[in-house]
Amino acid sequence: LNLGQWQGTVLYTQGDGQRYKWILRDNPGWDSLAYCHSFDTQTSQLTAVRIPFLEMVATRRARTVPGATPLNPAQI
Fold first, then answer.
1. DSSP letters spanning 17-55
2. Which helix (H) or strand (E) holds 8?
3. Distance between CA atoms of 34 and 23, rounded to whole angstroms?
4. What tens digit of pLDDT does each residue of 9-66 get?
5. Which of 3, 30, 35, 54 is deepest in the core (most CB within 10 A)?
6. Contact in structure between 70 and 7 (CB atoms under 8 Å)
7. How far is CA 24 from the centre of its chain?
8. 10 Å Cβ neighbour count for 1?
9. In the 8-state DSSP scheme, what is residue 1?
């Protein structure tokens, strides 16, 4: 997907009180960086979760990658 004209994503969630993680990748490689953002939900409540691309954290194998390049939204 080319989301280069956007600043982030919006997820509409029906909550169950749990914490979830939204993960995007800009490279199809098997071990490429994953860009993550965690969010909490509230039980039985519909919520719009706004996730700016600049707030997504680069990770690899569930570990933060300091100094990684930011997510490229033009090639999700």
1. S-EEEEEE-S---TT--EEEEEEE--TT-EEEEEEEGGG
2. strand 8-14
3. 6
4. 999 999 999 999 999 999 999 899 999 999 999 998 999 999 999 999 999 998 999 9
5. 35
6. no
7. 5
8. 10
9. -
